[in-house]
């Protein structure tokens, strides 16, 4: 490389920066595949990108624009495939990946240019490698340290079309400003000398990275506030639902006992076999409305009875083996949220099954040493996709999917653990809660209790 080559950043440097940027964002969002497979596929992406940028290095301005669109498209497809996100979220992160890669490459080359031309450093492979490793380690190390705090929000973030458009427009303007001097020196915002051109490009890209990060943080915080507000309203609605269910179940039980009393009186006064048979049928019909769930926990009994009545109308069979007394340490509202959401999700899934023999839900609550085990299982024929360990809703993610999040928040409140999985045609929700108070060391871990 000669001094004249310093005015042009090699395409290979940009390919490396785009690849490192992609790798960092996969680390702070999510990977669709295991680490080894992800590394192999991303390596192919790097080779394809490096080959394309090497072949198109030094093309004219219009071809340059077309080449950059191809490069962005390759990067978008790579992130879309490796992350498993939908196209909208993948496009959003791809623009952030692209601008970060632009900044890292321009910043590294500017510092190398400054070191050689102003500090008198030798222009050789060792110097180039020093700046290449040092600057990229600094940039991507700082970005990873900042972005990793938003890993969970990144996985759950939902984007509107307007929010995506803002980021795409911002990325386009940043790229236009940073490369304006390379396209034409005859604009009020262009530089004429290499040092000025590099400074404009690096500062524009730096502003782009900062603006996109600030916008992303605002999006995460706004969605977190909306989620907290929605969960608060949902909790209030569930409290009201529990209150109404309690009153309804008590009323049904009173009416049931009154009807049993009237039937006994009528039975003692009637002698006709047909009339007695009619009374038997009537008694059998109303027996289904008696609260059959006697778990030892009043809150759980009320919830199970209310949901059982719903299931009877839908032709769903519910079986329950529960020691409700083990749940007495939980607040009634927390218990209502946990089981209410779990059963609502199960009912919503099972009622889609056409085969009546598969419309099944099973609930169990038992103690295992120092833990309480809760399992809610239901037959499931639909394909369920998981995001961040929870089932991804098929509905509008802005207004649905909070049931599992509510359950998880309750489990975390009691320092428990929760697992969700599909196994042998059954959807299984398993919750493990430690019992409060001093417990003797029995050598049983949470994993063993599960």
Folded structure, characterized:
The protein is α+β, with helices and mostly antiparallel strands. It contains 13 helices and 7 strands. It has helices at 11-28, 35-55, 61-83, 87-117, 125-147, 151-156, 161-183, 194-269, 273-287, 298-314, 332-350, 402-413, 446-449, and strands at 317-322, 360-368, 371-379, 386-387, 390-391, 417-423, 426-434. The chain has a 5-stranded mixed sheet with strand order 1-2-3-7-6, with helices on one face. Strands 4-5 form a two-stranded antiparallel ribbon. β6 and β7 form a beta hairpin. α8 crosses α10 (298-314). The two termini are 63 Å apart.
Number of strands: 7
Considering DSSP H and I runs of 4 or more, what fraction of the residues is helical? 55-70%
What's the order of the H and E elements?
A: HHHHHHHHHHEHEEEEHEEH
Radius of gyration (CA) equals 32 Å
Question: What is the multimeric organization of the chains shown?
Answer: single chain
Strands in their spatial order, largest beta sheet: 1-2-3-7-6
Structural class by secondary-structure content: alpha+beta
Characterize the main sheet.
Answer: 5 strands, mixed
Uncertain regions: pLDDT < 50 for 5+ in a row?
A: 396-400, 439-445
Q: How confident overall, as mean pLDDT? A: 80
Shape: elongated
Strand content: 5-15%
Total helices: the number is: 13
Distance between the termini: 63 Å
């Amino acid at each position: 490389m000669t001094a004249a080559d310093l005015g042009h950043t090699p395409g290979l440097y940009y390919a490396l920066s785009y690849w490192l940027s992609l790798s960092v964002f996969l680390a702070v969002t999510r990977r669709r595949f295991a680490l080894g497979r992800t590394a192999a596929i991303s390596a192919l992406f790097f080779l394809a990108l490096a080959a394309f940028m090497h072949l198109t290095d030094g093309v004219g301005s219009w071809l340059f624009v077309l080449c950059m669109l191809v490069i962005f498209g390759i990067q978008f497809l790579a992130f879309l495939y490796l992350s498993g996100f939908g196209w909208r979220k993948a496009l959003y992160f791809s623009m952030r990946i692209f601008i970060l890669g632009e900044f890292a490459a321009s910043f590294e080359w500017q510092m190398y240019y400054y070191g050689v031309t102003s500090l008198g450093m030798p222009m050789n492979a060792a110097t180039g490698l020093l700046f290449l490793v040092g600057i990229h380690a600094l940039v991507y190390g700082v970005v990873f340290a900042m972005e990793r705090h938003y890993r969970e929000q990144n996985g759950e973030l939902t984007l509107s079309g307007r929010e995506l458009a803002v980021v795409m427009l911002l990325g386009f303007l940043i790229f236009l400003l940073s490369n304006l001097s390379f396209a034409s020196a005859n604009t009020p915002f262009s530089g004429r000398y290499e040092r000025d051109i590099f400074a404009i490009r690096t500062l524009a890209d730096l502003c782009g990275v900062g603006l996109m990060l600030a916008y992303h943080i605002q999006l995460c915080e706004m969605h977190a506030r909306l989620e907290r507000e929605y969960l608060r309203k949902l909790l209030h609605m569930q409290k009201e639902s529990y209150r109404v269910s309690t009153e309804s179940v008590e009323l049904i039980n009173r009416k049931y006992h009154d009807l049993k009393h009237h039937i006994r009186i009528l039975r003692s006064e009637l002698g006709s076999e047909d009339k007695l048979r009619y009374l038997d049928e009537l008694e059998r019909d109303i027996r289904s409305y008696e609260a059959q769930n006697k778990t030892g926990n009043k809150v759980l009994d009320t919830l199970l009875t209310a949901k059982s009545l719903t299931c009877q109308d839908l032709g769903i069979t519910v079986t329950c083996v529960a020691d409700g007394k083990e749940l007495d340490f939980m607040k009634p509202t927390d218990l209502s949220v946990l089981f209410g959401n779990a059963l609502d999700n199960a009912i919503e899934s099972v009622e889609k099954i056409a085969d009546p023999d598969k419309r099944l839900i099973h609930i169990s609550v038992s103690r295992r040493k120092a833990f309480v085990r809760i399992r809610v299982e239901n037959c499931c024929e639909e394909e369920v996709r998981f995001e961040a360990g929870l089932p991804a809703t098929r509905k509008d993610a802005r207004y649905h999917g909070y049931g599992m999040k509510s359950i998880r928040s309750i489990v975390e409140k009691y320092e428990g653990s929760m697992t969700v999985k599909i196994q042998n045609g059954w959807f299984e929700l398993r919750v493990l809660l430690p019992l409060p108070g001093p417990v003797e060391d029995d050598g049983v871990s949470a994993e063993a209790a599960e």
